[in-house]
Structure formats: structure tokens, C-alpha cells
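TODO from last week: model 3-oxoacyl-ACP synthase.
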Amino acid sequence: MSQPSVSLIDVASYLPGDPIPADYYAQFADSDELRDNLMFRAPKFRHHIAPEETATDMVERAAAGLIERHGEEVVAGADILITHTQMPDMPFYGGGGAIAHRLGMRPNWVLDLHNGGCAAFVLGLQVARQLLSSGAGHTALVAIAQNAAGQVFDQPTVRRKAQAAVPGDGAAVGLVTVSDQSPILDIETRTYGEFAGDMTIAFDPPRKWWQPGSAEGYIGFTESKITKVLARGNRQVPEVALAVCHRLGLKPRDVDLFVTNQPNRVFLRNWREALELPAERHVDTFDQCGNLFGAGIPINLDRAIGDGKVAAGDTVLMAAFAHAGDFAGAAAVRWGGRAA
């Protein structure tokens, strides 16, 4: 018996607050040996989560677009909730339970995916597709929240660093159903566990992240680590994207819309050149939103749909790599159009 078709039928997103310009960080800039590294060339704008705003708040506000277009009962009645939060509101558990409650859901499945990182939306689609095609339900939500920019990178001592000006906050929710409306054509995910220890939190003086101390934590970048991450990202995203294209018998240059995470401008340029795609077919909101980490793909897809950059019947290819290169994934969808 053939498995039923599973579709990504819609996505909705949310950006918190007003855009924050690059000048905001320029006023705090300190001497930083990584200041001129291409990895940290700042976007013109980004958004920050508000001081009292939670990841659950952000997901609820993102889901409002789905509720408006599909009805509250579709969202509340979803059988599966898959979430990823850059910084869970509580350190001991993920945000799935709180998000389910806020959206009025009583799902059979609640899964928090922490390892997906910047490729979490692709991983969420993979899990949702597998569960729905096996009969676990009819509808799934894939909810992604990025909330580190206004919480970690805007700490008084951290915002002086070059790395602080790049991230932005936002959230998005994808609606996945058993249908052939907007079918998920293929998904490729790869784990590179040997690189899992290359992304670290640093403190001056050193301590474990949970130990008390006055120092504020930041990402422990060095020139050597950055060189490795650049090499891995430049290789991994095209590899998983091309693997999906190969199985579908699709030439990469024939992809109608390419949607990726967006760590910096260099990755965006290199990825589209690797697939021989013109800039207009690769969604790029870096200068408006900065590095959105795991929320980048769904927020960019929502923007592209709203801006009319993708039409019914178009093939959308999504791809990303996570952290320092320990995970990568790609997914292709034949877009079926958005409900009015």
C-alpha cells in the first residue's frame, strides 16, 4: 500500500518589535580581533525579542496568520506539534507543552527538536511527514522560535563583540497535512556528529554555563573555528540540496525558489552560485532580519509567498546547516498556493 501524500500547505511568521539599525551596535563596538571577519559583517537591520516576551508568545503571534487563513479549529485540532526554540523559556524542558496550551491544542504528539539548529524547520518537516504518512494523524504544526538576539547577544558586555550585530529574532509556524495540495517531494538530512563539539559558549573567566558568575556568555568563536565553519557550510548546504534534486530528477538551476538559513552574505552568495541560481530566485532578507537561525527558512518562505515570489506549481527547495556543521538538511515542496 502506498503512503499518503503529505503537504506543507501554509506558513506564517512574526518579527518582534521595530527594526533595530546597525548604528545601535556601532555605539557599543569594542576592539575585537574578529571585527573585520566576513562572518560578522552586520545586516542593516534586525529585530529583538522584547524584555518580557517569551518564545511561546512569539510562536502564538506567528500562528495568528494560520488561524486567520485556516480557522482556529485547524490549528487547535492539530494531531502533532513539533517545536524548536533557540533558547527555551525554561532550561530543563522544551517549549512544546506551553505552546500547545497557548494554541488550545491537545495533540497526540509533542516533540521538541533541539539538534536541528538552523535546519530545524527541515527536520521538523521530515518528522511530521513520517508521522503523518504512517497514520499518526492528519495535521501537524512545525513551530520555530529564534530568541537569542535580544537576550544573549544584547547583553551589555556581549553587544560590544562583532558577533552580536548579526543575529535577529523571529518565529514561524508551518501547517502540514495529509493531502496532495502542496506535497513535500523529498527530504535529505545528514548528521555530522564529529563537529558537535565545535560550537561552544565562552565566559571570561571560564565556567560552565549553569554555574554562577558575573561574566556574560557568548559564542566562543576563533579564526580557526570560523574557517572550519565556513568550509563546512559552503559544502554541506549544496550537498544536501543537490541530493534532493538528484532524486527528483531536477536540475538545480530549474528550482523556482531557493530558501535557506542566512548566517551571512557570503554563504548566501556561495550557495546560490553552487546551484547556478540567479539572486532573484534565492530568498534573502539578511539586511532586514539578520541571521534568524532556525526561523530563517520559514520566515523567508512566508515573506516570499506574501511578496508573490512563488506561484502554484513552483518547486521550492529549502536547505540549511546547523551550528558549527553538525547537521544539515534539505527539503523540496511543490507549492500549491496559499488560501485567501
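Done. The chain has a mean pLDDT of 94.
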